[in-house]
Amino acid sequence: MTLSVGDNVNVEEHLRRRRDEGRPLLVPYLTGGISADWTRYLTEYARAGADAIEIGLPFSDPILDGPVIQEASDRALRRGVTVRDLLAEVAAVDVGVPLIAMTYYNLVAQSPDFCRGLAAAGITGLIVPDLPVDEAAPLVAAAEAAGVALTLLAAPSTPADRLAEIARVSRGFVYTVSVMGTTGTEFAESGGRIAASVRALTDRPVLLAFGISTTGHAVTAAGHADGVVIGAALMRRILDGGTPEQLGDVLASFRRALDDSVMTREQGSRVPADRS
């Protein structure tokens, strides 16, 4: 099924369907406005097998982002991009998979119609990493009214009662992070534990992020979660001059590794017939 951005496809329904087909979910990240032709990366990501794409809306003080994403945000901001500009550019492309915005609450709070603006551009998901679950209710309501899924984060240090509330309130999926701190390129096994804990609390898709920089990391992470988010490893290549086509090829290698891991598990689980 081909999905048009203009159709405003429900993120959770789409990811559930892909997951239930036995597909490890693959969600790449892209800093909006990183280059004049930045939306070409979106189309290449989709061509390479992304199940959804996370678009970072640049912010001047990205407290959760590591040095790579900070550098990408700084580059985009130096180009003079605005949220209005980025949304207009997104609205002009047909990517074919759900798009999810990621940014900080200060930027969201500047506009009472922020979520409606996302929906008008065809973006159906929103992640606000500095928004705690006990303060999320107003934005959850605004997002739902606009047809946007507000996804919350869970970390290894999140207490059990708070983890249950995040699993209950989050929409679209639950975003679990492998480590406390900023994004980067070192995968921590603690991510597997938090993803497994969240999966025990909800049937929503659970994605694992932070530090997934190799196909091996992705396969390991997907063994604990329903899929992975890949950010800094891709953005580093873009900052170093990687073209949209080259990044599409890189993402395609992640897609193949994840799909191959499913085939390997299925083959390993088969019991030979008794021929005696």
TrEMBL record:
InterPro entries associated with the record: Aldolase_TIM, RibuloseP-bd_barrel, Trp_synthase_alpha_AS, Trp_synthase_suA
Catalytic activity: (1S,2R)-1-C-(indol-3-yl)glycerol 3-phosphate + L-serine = D-glyceraldehyde 3-phosphate + L-tryptophan + H2O
Keywords linked to the UniProt accession: Amino-acid biosynthesis, Aromatic amino acid biosynthesis, Lyase, Tryptophan biosynthesis
Signal peptide from the UniProt entry: none
Uppermost EC category: lyase
Pfam name, any one: Trp_syntA
UniProt pathway: Amino-acid biosynthesis; L-tryptophan biosynthesis; L-tryptophan from chorismate: step 5/5
Active site positions, chain numbering: 54, 65
Assigned EC number: 4.2.1.20
Function statement: The alpha subunit is responsible for the aldol cleavage of indoleglycerol phosphate to indole and glyceraldehyde 3-phosphate.
PANTHER family linked to this entry: TRYPTOPHAN SYNTHASE ALPHA CHAIN, CHLOROPLASTIC (PTHR43406:SF1), TRYPTOPHAN SYNTHASE, ALPHA CHAIN (PTHR43406)
Family: Belongs to the TrpA family.
Subunit structure: Tetramer of two alpha and two beta chains.
Name listed for the protein in its UniProt record: Tryptophan synthase alpha chain
Gene: trpA_3
